[in-house]
Amino acid sequence: MASAAALLLQLQLLLLLSLSAAQPGFISLDCGGADDYTDGIGIQWTSDAKLVFGGQATNLPVQNQLQKQYSTLRYFPADNSKYCYTMNVRTRTRYLVRASFLYGNFDNSNTGQPFISTLELRQFNGSLYYTDYEAQFFLALSARINFGADGNKSVRYPDDPFDRIWESDSLRRANYLVDVAPGTERITTTKPVFVGTELEPPEKVMQTAVIGQNGSLNYRLDLEGFPGNAWAVSYFAEIEDLAPDETRKFKLVVPGMPLFSKPTVDVEENAQGKYRLYQPGYTNVTLPFVFSFEFKKTNDSSKGPILNAMEIYKHVQITMGSHSKHHV
Ligand SMILES: *[C@@H]1O[C@H](CO)[C@@H](O)[C@H](O)[C@H]1NC(C)=O
Ligand SMILES: *[C@@H]1O[C@H](CO)[C@@H](O)[C@H](O)[C@H]1NC(C)=O
Ligand SMILES: *[C@@H]1O[C@H](CO)[C@@H](O)[C@H](O)[C@H]1NC(C)=O
Ligand SMILES: *[C@@H]1O[C@H](CO)[C@@H](O)[C@H](O)[C@H]1NC(C)=O
Ligand SMILES: *[C@@H]1O[C@H](CO)[C@@H](O)[C@H](O)[C@H]1NC(C)=O
Fold first, then answer.
1. Which atom in ligand 5 lies closest to the alpha carbon of residue 298?
2. pLDDT (tens digit, 9 = 90+) per residue, 139-169?
3. Distance 253 CA to ligand 3 centre (A)
4. What gap in Å lies between CA 193 and CA 306, rounded to an integer?
């Protein structure tokens, strides 16, 4: 009797532990993977085998340097059928959906068979990324940049509770964050930054920034999927200890788009204090493929502009999916 009770207690403890270790609202499918496991950052991956009918699981021929979830994939016949994943989601809830495709010569002959490596869902709480257009349009990520980042590594879970991936601005890619203004410097703080605003960005991303010591911050980047209508937001938090008589005021300038410029940003005033976040944005603005922007200090400001992070998404029309002869 006593041992049965002890066993029961142990089982309950195990259940509690496994529940608290899991991330509520996360679904992470390792496509083609054979088993379930937890990765180095604590994400629990599950095999996709029970959630899709059809397709073949396979291992990539070259596996070294690969994270486990990318070392397998599932491929499907290049026929007229439609192969679907079925997952339990909460209705009337916004999700981040991230799919990855690492070809890795899995078929050794480029047969053109469709395949998928991972499929991730992250539930957003509350009104995160709400738009007036969400019945007809979803938001497709084009850029999510952590300015002044410490090194090249992205910031994601567990720093970001929703596992958004914030790319470092020091990552070098063609036509990505070029034409940087002279006098651009990176700054960092270890002090806490208040980020409890509607978009809840990770504090770690807000603890770094770039500042324009010479009065301007300039960038040019290609926006995947554009021209189009964008949802765009910039994140500002004053993370320098300015003297009482110093000010940081600036305006956004977009060449050829005079209407783009909103009123002057005064970070401390807008955020109602230092080490607090202000996140002005546009819910629907038309942007070109080659996007240049500048934050320029106003004449009455003693300091140049600051920029901690930025996100740009494209409004993409929701369609009912492709036609197919058979659903599998
Ligand atoms: C989202 O809300 C659920 C339910 O209120 C909560 O359990 C979960 O921790 C929240 N997630 C984040 C990342 O805030
Ligand atoms: C960042 O990556 C680039 C290549 O994209 C490399 O040249 C650079 O050395 C890396 N910097 C750091 C700090 O790792
Ligand atoms: C800053 O601007 C001044 C005046 O335009 C210029 O002389 C100086 O070289 C600039 N500094 C840097 C670091 O580019
Ligand atoms: C955004 O604005 C454009 C131009 O005014 C309009 O055509 C479009 O329907 C709006 N909404 C979305 C989601 O693009
Ligand atoms: C700064 O002053 C110059 C010259 O008076 C003026 O042309 C310019 O528009 C002013 N810039 C801003 C951002 O107020």
1. 13
2. 999 999 999 999 999 999 999 999 999 999 9
3. 19
4. 15
